[in-house]
Design goal:
The structure holds two protein chains of two kinds.
Chain A (H helix, E strand, L loop, with lengths): L2 H8 L2 H15 L23 E3 L14 H5 L5 E8 L2 E13 L8 H5 L5 E3 L14 E2 L1 H11 L12 H6 L12
Antiparallel strand pairs in A: 1-4, 2-3, 3-5
Chain B lengths: L1 H39 L15 H10 L11 H17 L12 E3 L2 E3 L10 H22 L3 H32 L4 H6 L25 H14 L11 H4 L9 H25 L12 H4 L6 H26 L5 H29 L3
Helix pairs in contact in B: 1-9, 1-11, 2-9, 3-4, 3-9, 4-5, 5-7, 5-12, 7-9, 7-12, 9-11
Chain lengths: ~180, ~375
């Protein structure tokens, strides 16, 4: 043991270095805490939150009951009961639409799979409930989420610009930056 | 008869005042520790209850008071109930001999009372050592009576640790006893009056400033052993939460748990008081006399003395928290080796060296 290490041992040099580090953190106090219910962090632009069913601007549902979302879902969250639109044998709609959000892993594959952009991911995430049955959502609830999260809606497909309508691409329902 | 009852009433008032001071400080400490720990770790600490979380101790007290009191199946009920009470009472009565302020005497109806110390007994240090040893019984009993593996292991560790470090505490104090020539904490503190170079950490002689009787090694041994004796990090093996859930109070809940925790904080305070009274001059200011005396307010000098005592105690308490924020827990064999092979020889050598210096250079 050299003299230097001996000196460091009896003066608790390494412990003092550590104590200096903690003290400097206290003196330069910059907490990383976010006081969550009082202050909320800015969500990223591509945040994938609660799922919602969307409507056109005239109030008709976009969903055509094609079941592709159900096929795409890896966790079997979605159940679609498809039916003909009464009186219009060429058109279909989803008679019933259920999502079991307890199983959802928010991958967004259903949104990608939807050919008519009837599904959207909102920026809602505060969905803790006391009874998990409340997370088994039906069509009305999903439409309500869509209504309150996407107040700006697209026109009917045939009323959109022909180029956009051809590819069926619309951007307005994407979440906008806050503020 | 009247004098006896009057004396009793005065003693009760003193005990009540002392206990309320201790309990208020314990409540403050729980808040202070969480805050300081948070600041040192780039967190905020409690922020929800009241402004800046100031009412957190009150909320914690109410919560613990109304929690369910669970006694585990197979526990020895009497011992299980006795352990937290024993720990709490013992940590409280240790403060009886601590001088919180100067050695004033008041004369009321022919009685002489000392307002700042509950009992100025002439074996103060022995009393504190004895009381601290009884405190270990509470921990061991609590660990044994819970009928739980974790509690038993915590209790066993506490037994070994507290006893081995208690020894170092006792030996570290011997040098101070030799310097002061008394065991009364009041007289020891009085012997250190007149500036910081008279404090026993330097052990300065009245005729010269060269610190030949320095007790700084005893001071370091005492502080480290005090941390170990109060089961604080880095010596918190009896309640190592990552190994033993919560150690000896794993099975305790509600008010009994609160008793154990507040006893731990009160013990912290007790060893801080002892350290500042024995090594850092207790109520004495680091300069001769007091400022109040210089400006001609002798009757208010006790305020300054109490402020200095509180400042020293809070310095130690802050250091306890600071060490907790810095260091990880020791391994068990490291703890034992450090206690027996490092601390004990230093404490013994300090006794021998101090006795030699005192023989050749008497105070």
């Amino acid at each position: 043991m050299t003299f230097n290490t001996w000196l460091k041992t009896i003066t608790f040099y390494e412990i003092l270095v550590g104590m200096k580090a903690t003290m400097s953190h206290m003196l330069h106090y910059r907490p990383v805490t976010e006081q969550y219910p009082h202050e909320k962090r800015t969500l990223p632009d591509n945040y994938r939150g609660m799922l919602a069913l969307l409507r056109y601007d005239d109030g008709t549902e976009k969903c055509v009951g094609c079941d592709l979302c159900e096929a795409a879902c890896p966790s079997r969250v979605i159940r679609v009961v498809s039916a003909e639109v009464p009186g219009e044998p060429t058109k279909r709609y989803s008679k019933e639409y259920y999502m079991d959000m307890t199983r959802c892993l928010f991958c967004g594959l259903c949104v990608d799979a939807c050919p008519v952009d009837a599904l959207g991911m909102t920026r809602e995430f505060e969905w803790s409930v006391y009874d998990k049955r409340q997370l088994h959502l039906n069509k009305e609830q999903l439409l309500a989420i869509g209504d309150r999260s996407f107040p700006v809606r697209e026109k009917q497909l045939e009323l959109q610009h022909p180029n956009v309508a051809f590819f069926n691409v619309a951007f307005k329902h994407l979440p906008q930056k806050p503020g | 008869m009247t004098e006896l009852s009057l004396r009793l009433a005065v003693s009760f008032a003193q005990i009540l005042a002392e206990m309320s001071i201790v309990m208020i400080t314990v409540a403050t400490l729980t808040y202070f520790e969480r805050k300081v720990l948070g600041w040192m770790q780039d967190r905020m600490g409690p922020m929800e209850v009241g402004p800046y979380g100031l009412l957190q101790p009150v909320a914690d007290g109410i919560k613990l008071f109304f929690k369910e009191d669970i006694v585990p199946a197979g526990a020895n009920k009497a011992m299980f109930a006795l352990a937290p009470m024993l720990t709490m009472v013992v940590s409280m009565i240790g403060f009886a001999v601590i001088p919180f302020g100067p050695n004033l005497t008041l004369d009321i109806y022919g009685m002489t009372i000392k307002p700042f110390v509950v009992a100025d007994i002439n074996i103060g240090i022995l009393y504190i050592l004895a009381i601290a040893s009884i405190g270990a019984y509470g921990i061991i009993l609590g660990g044994w009576a819970s009928n739980s593996k974790y509690s038993l292991l915590g209790g066993l560790r506490a037994a070994a640790q507290v006893i081995s470090y208690e020894l170092n505490v006792g030996l570290a104090l011997v040098g101070v006893l030799m310097l002061a020539g008394t065991m009364s904490l009041v007289e020891i503190t009085e012997a250190q009056s007149g500036g910081f170079w008279h404090w026993f950490i330097w052990g300065g002689r009245p005729d010269g400033f060269f610190p030949i009787h320095t007790q700084i090694f005893a001071f370091v041994v005492f502080v480290i052993s005090a941390v170990a004796e109060t089961n604080r990090i880095p010596f918190d093996l009896p309640e190592a939460e990552s190994e033993l859930v919560a150690g000896f109070f794993t099975e305790y809940s509600g008010m009994r748990f609160a008793f154990f925790v507040s006893a731990e904080y009160a013990n912290m305070m007790l060893v801080s008081c002892v350290a500042s009274a024995l090594f850092l001059g207790g109520w004495n200011a680091p300069y001769p006399g007091t400022i109040f005396e210089y400006v001609g307010l002798e009757q208010l000098a006790w305020i300054e003395h109490i402020v200095w005592f509180a400042a020293k105690v809070y310095f130690f308490l802050f250091m306890f928290i600071w060490i907790r924020a810095t260091l990880p827990r020791l391994r068990y064999d490291q703890l034992m080796r450090f206690g027996w092979k490092v601390m004990l020889p230093i404490a013994l050598a300090n006794i021998i060296v101090t006795s030699f210096t005192l023989y050749f250079f008497p105070r």
